[in-house]
Amino acid sequence: MILHGKPVAEKIYQKVQSDLKKISKKYLAVVLVGEDPASLSYIKIKEKIAQRLGLNFHLYHLPGIVSEKEVLKLLADLNQNKFIAGIVVQLPLPKGWSDQKILDYVSLEKDIDGFKGRYPSPTAQAILETLKFYQISLKDKKIVIIGHGRLVGEPLEKLLLKQGLKPIVCDSQTKDLKAKILSADILVSAVGRPGFVKADMVSEKAVVIDAGTAESKGKIAGDVAEEVYQKVSSYSPVPGGIGPVTVAGLMRNFVHAAKK
What we know:
By secondary structure, the protein is of the alpha/beta class. The protein is built from nine helices and ten strands. It folds into two domains: 93 residues, Leucine Dehydrogenase, chain A, domain 1 (Rossmann fold, 3-Layer(aba) Sandwich); 121 residues, Rossmann fold (3-Layer(aba) Sandwich).
């Protein structure tokens, strides 16, 4: 079964539709530093969805040569701007920068990416909502997460623990990584390495959620190699899987922030 994200996203948009008229004067601000192709692609998707919903969207696109100090100054201004209800700092930031320092500078009330806990992580929430939409139960399942970053792996682990589930979290230091992946009933990959998960690393019973994206040969590619699709019971494709649901979750967070 293919776990398409569009119907899941549409369900989210339907629920926030009634609140959109109440926030007509509020803006979503997206800050991008540099020219990362995957980032540019995702920003275009966010802008297109915002336009469709009638939300005010503004991109602050800064050249890669700017300093961290200049970005912090911009964020300080956006934090104080009463018309800005939500701020997104598009990752990745330039090499050598402190992601933690930049992201922590966004105010709690406007942190719609959920790093500070006021709002749920859009991607982590999207994974759970997609599984629920397709009636894939997590009960008594072995859940394996590859990658423990602050965008996906870390917040997803926290959400699962809150549900009384105990996922196995793997990273580059994990021993017997292939064996752990093979044991998964539900596998979530979020490492950002195109084709990282191969067919010989998964079982036929597995539900595979691809939450890792990067550029490969001029296109956006996921962590999961296409050969995996023919083997497993269910999978989320890239593009068209978790991505659309993540954007929907981000817009939902923005609507909630704007209402407050």
